[in-house]
Amino acid sequence: MKLENINLENIKAVIFDFDDTLAIHKDKDYCKHRRKSEEKYLSYYLNAYRNPDTFYEEIEPCIESEILYNLIAKLRSKGIKMYCLSGMKFSFHLKAKQSFINKHYGNDIEIISTASQELKLDGTKIISKLNNCKLEEILFIDDRQDVIDTLCKNKINSILISDMES
């Protein structure tokens, strides 16, 4: 689905993924690199927990998505509620993710974690109940085709971030 095919007047909540959606990783192999050793792996989460305000600038450098930055300004002007639903093994880096979002997009996007990508559908259903809206009134933006496919099958407006960039 393309953004231009979605009437934002009918959208009550927008949900973004974090990694490679709101936060574009400069190191595309970041997952592989942090798993090189147990020490590196544990250090990654420890650093995120201890340094939430600088983690995504200094330790795991990311930049904001210009396309989403502009979209978020438009959504904000329409009073649309926004969330970030991020699949995470641990919540040790939840504060770091929230800090990145606040710095780059504003402090009105709440981050929520799911234990897996598969749980994003359930998370979206809970967010629809929180906002007293139908699934069709939610827009979800993610970088993973499998997540987009699952959400689309459940009548949730879903866009692959790479489709917005092209």
Structure description:
The protein is α/β, with parallel strands linked by helices. The chain has a single domain (3-165), classed as Rossmann fold. Helix content is 43%, strand content 19%. It has 8 helices and 7 strands. Strands 5-4-1-6-7 form a 5-stranded parallel beta sheet, with helices on both faces. A two-stranded antiparallel sheet has the order 2-3. Helix 7 links the parallel strand 6 and strand 7. The mean pLDDT is 94.
Q: Provide the CATH top-level class.
A: Alpha Beta
Q: Sketch the topology as an H/E string, one letter per element.
A: EEHHHEHEHEHEHEH
Number of strands: 7
In which range does the helix fraction lie? 40-55%
Radius of gyration: 16 Å
Mean pLDDT: 94
- CATH superfamily, by name, is HAD superfamily/HAD-like
Coarse structural class: alpha/beta
Comma- or semicolon-separated keywords:
five-stranded parallel β-sheet, 7 strands, 166 residues, globular, single chain, Rossmann fold, alpha/beta, two-stranded antiparallel sheet, 43% helix
Task: Summarize it.
The chain is an alpha/beta fold. The protein has 8 helices and 7 strands. The chain has helices at residues 30-34, 38-50, 55-59, 66-77, 94-105, 120-130, 145-153, 161-165; strands spanning 13-16, 23-25, 62-64, 81-87, 109-114, 138-142, 157-160.
What is the topological layout?
Blueprint lengths: L12 E4 L6 E3 L4 H5 L3 H13 L4 H5 L2 E3 L1 H12 L3 E7 L6 H12 L3 E6 L5 H11 L7 E5 L2 H9 L3 E4 H5 L1
Parallel strand pairs: 1-4, 1-6, 4-5, 6-7
Antiparallel strand pairs: 2-3
